[in-house]
Amino acid sequence: MKHTPFASPTERLASLDILRGFDLFLLVFFQPVFVSLGQRLGWPWLDSVLYQFDHEVWVGFRFWDLVMPLFLFMTGASMPFSFSKFKNTPDKGSVYRKILKRFVLLFIFGMIVQGNLLGLDPKHLYLYTNTLQAIATGYLIAAIILLHCSLKWQIIATALLLVIYWIPMTFCGDFTPEGNFAEYVDRFILGRYRDGVYWNEDGT
């Protein structure tokens, strides 16, 4: 699978493909197999290593907390290569169709994976619970900025987004799982269409 939706095979970045493969290897093979093997062996010295292959509950950081941000990083790193030939194109209709298609597909896949979409039960349908949906939303916002802003304004927009996020998270609510500002927003917007926990362990 190509690392970008628009790049030709000659524009593939080998380092990005290797990093993606490493991240997927950790996610779908190494962590499940290693953790199961470690639990079966029961060696005490492995406990500190196994500890790093699970998400931190709330306060703290473990190695496994890098997996989701790494996917976000790879998505962002590939976008300049994907969009370079579209940036100066007057008619951006075709690229926006591809962006929206990717956004919708990632969002739906996220609902399938953790949103109980295939359960066909509206009472247990969750709209925004998955890393794929966080990637889809970030991808859409970043694509708009990348296609329409110069490097200077990209930096300014990034700084503004960070400040807009920091102010309410710091001054509205607190830093507890149930009392932070993001949790208030989730409850207000999603209501019963959320998975009922204060936060997702992957940080979304």
In terms of topology, how is this protein built?
Elements: H1 14-41, H2 47-50, H3 67-83, H4 93-114, H5 131-148, H6 151-171, H7 181-190
Helix pairs in contact: 1-3, 3-5, 4-5
Architecture overview:
It is a single chain. With 204 residues, the chain is mainly alpha-helical. The chain is 59% helix and 0% strand. Helix 1 runs antiparallel to helix 3 (67-83), helix 3 runs parallel beside helix 5 and helix 4 runs antiparallel to helix 5 (131-148). The longest helix has 28 residues, at 14-41. Residues 1-9 have low confidence and may be disordered.
Helicity, as a percent range: 55-70%
Q: What's the overall average pLDDT, rounded?
A: 84
Helix vs. strand class: mainly alpha
**Distance between the ends:** 25 Å
Short structural description:
The protein is mainly α and 204 residues long.
Summary tags:
globular; single chain; disordered N terminus; 7 helices; 204 residues
